[in-house]
Amino acid sequence: MLVAGANLADNHAVAMRQVLAAQAAGAKVAVVDPRRTATAARADVFAQLRPGSDIALLGAVINLVLENGLFDRDYVTRFTNARYLVNAGYGFAAGLFAGYDAAGRSYDADRWAYALDGQGRPIEAADIEAPGTVFSHLRAHFSRYDPATAAAICGVPAGTIRELATAVAGRRPLAILYALGITQHTTAVQTIRCYAILALLLGSVGVAGGGMNALRGEANVQGSTDMGCLATHLPGYLPVPSWRDATLADYAVRHGTAATTGLAALLAAWFAAPAAEAYRWLPRQGAGQPATYLPMLAAMAAGQFRAALAVGINLLASTPDNRLAARALAALDTLAVVDLYRSETAEFWRLPGVRPAEVKTEVLLLPAAHLYEKAGSLTSGSRLVQRQPRLLRPAGRARADLAIIDGLFRAVRRRYAASGSAKDGPLLAAAWEYGRPPAADKVLQEIDRACPLYAGAAGALAAGRPFAWPDNAPILYADGAFTTAEGVARLFAAPYAAPDGTARAAVCLDGPLPEHYEPVESPLANPLHPAASANPLLEAPQDIGDGAFPYVLTTYAAADGAAAATVEVSAALAAALGLADGELVTVASRRGTARAAVRVSDALRPLTAGGRTVHTVAMPLGRSATVLGVNAVTSAAADPTAGTPAAKSCLVAIRQGE
Predict the structure, then answer these.
(1) Is the dihedral of CA 463, 469, 470, 473 positive or negative?
(2) Same domain, 247 and 367
(3) CA nearest 61: which of 205, 185, 158?
(4) pTM for the model
(5) What's the pLDDT band for 124 if we cut at 50, 70, 90?
(6) What letters, b where the CB count within 10 A reaches 16 and e where it falls short, cover 400-432?
(7) What is the three-state SS of 269-290?
(8) Total domain count for the chain?
(9) Same domain, 317 and 262
(10) Of the residues 468, 486, 508, the one at which a domain ends
(11) Residue 545: pLDDT above 90?
(12) Which of 58, 422, 425, 456 would bridge 194 by S-S if both were Cys, CB 3.0 to 4.6 A apart?
């Protein structure tokens, strides 16, 4: 079992009990983390690495698995694209994959395509080791990551890397558990892919006890992503139409018949109009990077929005480099905040550095009901959908989210009832009938009709039966039933559309294979390819620093809620700087400063990387008041595919006194 960037002991107690039970039954537990956490203290193998260097560490583990023949050859041959031949135009040199456009900071992914036969199907070699196969490219790519090279990058000793490889390969299947310590980096998607490649090589996907397991930090994070709370996907993980997809037929060509059938069902549930007509009302994703929330805030700060609705999000507390959020909100005419409390977002003008006299935004606070004060459903990380009945009546004027959104929609539609403008078509044609007052069960019934993943959920829950999407499958991808366009798991992410139009593969924007790139702010240049040190799709070039900000800051979720801001330092760094436990210091980055009390901790230690000593310091993400300080210094650089900000790695200085 491999736990990466997650502290189960403090933040996922139920999962930790299961990990300890598996360990007691003979499982080996390995932990990868920049901090020696309570979870790491129970591990059989602990790899304490420099923040942002996971791919270097994993690359060495994959290299050892391949070179020592520890992979499951039968599984890899039968259930992955290992035998597929890659187009001769593919290549990788000096840190760049073929097809890189320096001016646009983008890739032509067609350069990574498969070699196809006359029917448009990938050509398969007789053996995975044949020249030009996915497997041969995979082996060559990771051959550069020998343990000594990886150790010099990530700070984990070569011997520990070998021990880690032996531990994860020696106990099958391998279960990988990960959390925000992996996802909040500029190479987040590729790091997760790297872990997935390791799991596939070990035959550990689609089997009981194996696979990739994202640890969810809230009760319904899984349900929210299932229902389209992502910039790139609609409910059921249907791709958002691109600006190229002018018609539903265009969408079908790009994304396949399965996605188009799902989209037609969604449109039928949303609009009282034929699917082809309703399709034109959907928003389009423009050229370039997805419109995730950080680019949206930048556009808001530039005056491209007049109003915003913040539902259950405290932007000032959860946005790295939170000055961006403050500038964005100050540029609005109207901000409506739906939350349980009077949050910092609802009073953003109080943030240090914001001039209240210059803020013209009208703020409306809509009090929301708590989880137990409203009815609905929750979907756990194991895909299990459960009913959530209302247990308490909301206090005062608080209302359930459904009631608030329903009321807003009906009021807006009444306002535009007589409009003859085409742009108001979706508002007037929306099939919005959830009852008066709106009922959560009616929403679930619509989800059942509109989202193929959830087909059957409403009936099962109404009958008191459990339901896990899809079709109550206990294990995803069992017996090699992968849902890719190729029908097999993808060690190499090539663009591919099935010739029968059933499906189209998605690609990672920054390459078909994971590659180590340094964080945007790093104390080291990338020894593998200094000319392409940071992720080449990022607009900001790598900032190696000039000595003014010598330490690497990472963040973590505090088990005690962290009522006061603290900065965790190793005993070695505390001695070098003359810091005492509890002393108030200023933590500074290129973005801002935060006051914090020093906490001398054995969770951190100096690492040797790039031939020098690298110190990591850590600040907890506790209550919102403390997070405001942390996010005054963190970086908003983001993963180019997912848009997740790099809250887990930036450069800081620690200064005594004010």
Answers:
(1) negative
(2) no
(3) 158
(4) 0.94
(5) very high
(6) bbbbbbbeeeeeeeeeeeeeeeeebbbbeebeb
(7) HHECCCHHHHHCCCCCECCCCC
(8) 3
(9) no
(10) 468
(11) no
(12) 58
